Amino acid sequence: MSVVVSDASPLIALSAVSLLDLPSTLYGTIHIPEAVYEEVVVRGQGRPGSLEVAGAEWIIRHNVADQQAVAQLRNLSGLDEGESEAIILAGSSNASLIILDDRDARRMPK
Fold first, then answer.
1. Could you tell me the maximum CA-CA distance found in the chain, to the nearest angstrom?
2. Mean pLDDT, rounded, for 36-58
């Protein structure tokens, strides 16, 4: 089974147009790091995606163990915590796909 990881912005954008179920339809389960959950659900409370992501049983949250790698990526690239954790999670879980909207993040090696 293939692993698909997502960053926050695609989930927020899909929620805003009532299409958050699209990734589930396409890929089944979506994996997100805790930083993405924090950004969408906790800090984004009351905004598109907050309730939808919190209630989506097909989204699986992960603690990213290698916080040193996350910090290195952030320092080298200027990416935010959610993007950095998503990239590290994708690499450590051998994800077949990572869903990102940020151009700089998409250019990072997995």
1. 36
2. 96
